Automatic annotation (TrEMBL), chain A:
It is found in: Cell membrane. The chain crosses the membrane at residues 26-45, 111-131, 151-175, 206-224, 260-286, 306-332. It comes from the Bacteria. One of its GO terms (cellular component) is plasma membrane. GO terms for biological process: transmembrane transport. InterPro entries: BPD_transp_1_N (IPR045621), MetI-like (IPR000515), MetI-like_sf (IPR035906). This is ABC transporter permease.
Automatic annotation (TrEMBL), chain B:
Keywords: Cell membrane, Membrane, Transmembrane, Transmembrane helix, Transport. This is ABC transporter permease. It is a multi-pass membrane protein. Belongs to the binding-protein-dependent transport system permease family. The chain crosses the membrane at residues 25-47, 92-116, 137-160, 256-278. One of its GO terms (cellular component) is plasma membrane. The lineage of its organism: Bacteria, Bacillati, Actinomycetota, Actinomycetes, Propionibacteriales.
Length: 339, 294
């Protein structure tokens, strides 16, 4: 008996390793493609990049030449390409024009607010979406289901930035006699106290951006979870559980939801790119000092080195998240593994 | 083409319409769409681009709704109602053309990935998956910022970043169609790649394509307004640029609710109409969904 299980277990583990290795290879290829695409994309800039960079600044032709040499633009395209790849591999993303600081340093400063905001919003959106989706999918056609579908349809149609503007208008600026409750911008007040007071201050600043992000991303989790539960409703094991005399709520919580959860949670990470897009918009509206705002400022200026660096970082992290989700799904779901 | 084929086609269109009519939400969406498109098309008969001219604003700045300007005015005293009307042309045009571009790329690459086995299909699939993972809004922002914000580049930026899901859908459908026996028969009769893809695969995926394009227009309109709001679009009046103006001029803190509410509501209503329409089309046309509902 034990021999049999060992024999069965060995190829499964082997298969998993091979699967993870394939996925990692795919991710590396994707990242390489991003680096190559970024290089050529930013060489598509119409006209002379140095002139574009020097826009609005007084520079002599000699200074422009110096700048060109510093950026390596006087070399041939293949040489520039190799140089760019070498730099990127060493995590050297260049120096921002606007801030006169290395792009990597700027990213290091801005990454924590973004992780705080999107992390909180993601946890809230996922739990709310899964809870509501499970209830809606369990009784399709019920009033709760119709209400949920309507809500998600409306939220799907609402542009992120407009929802942010509305919340800003109602809760930060105040409507008529009702004063605004929440701050309009930033991550903390200038006169924020230290210690616990600071935490409270940040939390207060985070309410509106977080709410906007949750509202926009949670709708799709709801829909995915709903259809995922819907798939389970007709299954034999549910009928068995019912025949055993289990309470309806118990069947849902103990049997249907755990099975439906897996594809949903994976999809959450698969669509992380959508959340990133939302984060850029939300951070821009509420002046949240994160990566999204950094990227937005780079576009407004425009500061192409900074734009290139943040773009690279964002896309590479999205690719890594996707691959991770893929592999974890494979580990967790025996149904996929056996195929 | 024989008349028999035409009779059959007319019948299937009639059947489709009879089925579509039973979905109230879809009919409502279609109604809103027709009204919006007709309004956008006839706008030049009544107004011209002059209503968006900063100097020609006649009203007071940020004035609330009144008889002169039923939906209030913006920061330059221009009527929000007329701006919305004229702006709908840009928003809808970009929405339609970007969806069309995305559909064309998605269909060609989707059919290619499904039809050609071996390395060609594998490469196309690999590229599709790569684009699918990229955060589309961020990529579209970079594209629009680099290429400049004209109407054409915004269309390209949206189209180039939104086609992969269409390609995935079309590829799956192509695989399903090509597994049918009549394809084998056709092959035996000497049909080439071109004949099979255009005469057999394309007509079979066309209905689904219609549904997915309708949904794509909805998201293209949202993306356009987001790009315009984030300031990468040149200053042609659209619903997104109006909202940008309301943000820049502090309409939220000034209490100018009409300047924020109206353009946003227009986006939501039109996008919702497209979504309802597209979902109904999907339900009616996708046999898999129909059997599940039955």
């Amino acid at each position: 008996m034990t021999v049999v299980t060992e024999v069965e277990a060995a190829p499964a583990r082997h298969g998993l390793l091979r699967y993870a290795a394939t996925k990692a290879g795919g991710a590396l290829l994707s990242i390489a493609m991003v680096v190559v695409a970024t290089f050529f994309l930013f060489r598509l800039l119409p006209g002379d990049p140095v002139r574009a960079l020097a826009q609005g600044r007084n520079m002599t032709p000699e200074q422009l030449d110096l700048e060109r040499a510093r950026l390596g633009l006087d070399r041939s395209i293949p040489e520039q390409f190799l140089h760019f790849v070498g730099q990127t591999l060493r995590f050297d993303l260049g120096t921002s024009y606007e801030y006169k600081r290395p792009v990597l340093d700027l990213i290091g400063d801005r990454i924590w607010p973004t992780l705080l905001l999107t992390g909180t919003a993601l946890v809230m959106a996922v739990s709310l979406g899964i809870w509501q989706g499970a209830r809606a999918g369990w009784k399709p056609g019920s009033r709760f289901d119709k209400f949920s579908t309507a809500i998600s349809l409306v939220l799907w149609s609402v542009p992120t930035f407009w929802l942010g503007l509305l919340l800003l208008m109602v809760f930060a600026a105040g409507v008529g006699p009702i004063p605004g409750v929440f701050p309009t911008r930033g991550i903390a007040s200038v006169d924020a106290p230290d210690g616990f007071g600071y935490v409270l201050d940040v939390a207060q600043h985070m309410v509106l951006p977080c709410l906007t992000l949750v509202a926009v991303v949670y709708a799709q989790y709801l829909l995915v979870m709903r259809s995922s539960v819907l798939d389970e409703v007709g299954q034999d094991y549910i009928t068995t559980a019912r025949a055993k005399g289990l309470r309806d709520d118990d069947i849902r919580r103990r049997h249907a939801v755990p099975n439906a959860l897996l594809p949903t949670v994976t999809l959450v990470f698969m669509r992380i790119g959508f959340v990133v897009g939302g984060a850029v918009t939300v951070e821009a509206i509420f002046s949240w000092p994160g990566l999204g705002q950094l990227f937005y400022e780079a576009i407004r200026v425009p500061d192409f080195t900074l734009m290139q660096g943040t773009f690279l970082l964002i896309t590479v992290s999205v690719i890594l998240m996707n691959t991770l989700a893929d592999v974890i799904y494979h580990v967790l779901d025996p149904r996929v593994r056996s195929v | 083409m024989s008349s028999l084929a035409w009779v059959r086609r007319r019948r299937s269109v009639q059947r489709f319409w009879a089925e579509f009519r039973t979905h109230k939400a879809g009919v409502a969406g279609l109604g809103v769409l027709v009204v919006a498109v007709v309004l956008a098309l006839i706008a030049p008969l009544f107004i011209d681009a002059g209503v968006t001219n900063v100097v020609s604003g006649t009203g007071e700045k940020l004035a609330p709704p009144s008889l002169d300007a039923p939906l209030g005015t913006d920061e330059s005293g221009r009527s929000v109602l007329l701006m919305i009307w004229w702006g709908s042309r840009t928003s809808l045009l970009i929405g339609f053309l970007a969806a069309l571009l995305s559909m064309v790329i998605g269909t060609v690459l989707g059919i290619a990935a499904g039809h050609f086995r071996g390395w060609l299909g594998a490469i196309v699939l690999r590229i599709t998956d790569w684009f699918l993972v990229l955060p589309s809004l961020v990529t579209a922002l970079v594209l629009a910022a680099i290429l400049g914000g004209s109407t054409a580049t915004i269309i390209v930026a949206i189209g180039v970043t939104s086609w992969p899901s269409t390609a995935r859908l079309i590829r799956a459908q192509t695989l399903a169609v090509e597994a049918r026996p009549y394809i084998e028969r056709s092959l035996a009769l000497g049909a080439g790649h071109w004949h099979i893809t255009t005469r057999h695969v394309l007509p079979n995926v066309a209905p689904l394509l219609l549904a997915s394009t309708t949904l794509e227009v909805a998201s293209a309109i949202v993306t356009e307004s987001t790009l315009a709001f984030l300031g990468v679009s040149a200053n042609k009046t659209s619903w997104g640029t109006m909202l940008r103006g309301s943000y820049d001029w502090g309409a939220a803190t000034a209490g100018a609710w009409w300047y924020i509410l109206i353009p946003g509501l227009c986006i939501v209503i039109v996008v919702m109409a497209f979504t309802l329409c597209g979902r109904t089309l999907e339900t009616v046309l996708n046999p898999r969904l129909r059997t599940r509902a039955a």
